[in-house]
Amino acid sequence: xPKLTIHLPDQEPLKVGFEDQIxxxxxxxxxxxxxxxxxxxxxxxxxxxxAGDQYLLVDLDSTNGTFxxxxxxxxxxxYNGARITFGxxxxxxxxxxxxxxxxxxxxxxxxxxxxxxxxxxxxxAAIAAQSxxxxxxKNLSPVERVEKKDGFAxxxxxxxxxxxxxxxxxxxxxxxxxxxS
Length: 181
What we know:
With 181 residues, the protein is an alpha+beta fold. It has helices at residues 96-107, 151-178; strands at residues 3-7, 14-17, 23-27, 34-35, 46-51, 54-59, 66-68, 71-73, 75-77, 83-86, 89-94. The longest helix is centred in the last third of the chain and has 28 residues, at 151-178.
């Protein structure tokens, strides 16, 4: 059962279990599943959503943001030992099921080989319904990412350039017409 340990200033840590609920809302408002009375939390700050056998953390457009291991997130998959920050309230996420699966996979030396070749496995890949950037992902490229401009901006720029060239052409023509022959 996934657990969340919330660390509020000057209070004992608050431990909450999800009990396999599909959605768990957290925030300052009384209608949340987890009510956290802290001024840095929004009324409806974030939500935990069960997706398969794993919870996703979803920020509900909170004022002070939701962070996973220090990185701002809007939606991300959770893992055992994740450090979540809601505004200025920190919490630790624990998931026994995920931790146990990882230990079994690492400890096991039988890879499901049926022919003895070592190339056949019982591991099957599936296309994910959703792609998520890892919480601690950082772009290390020294080149800044260039945002693509939309079509309207390109047309406006082209009209501007044509206007400048037309004005320069008219000014040149007017100058030539004033020259004595």
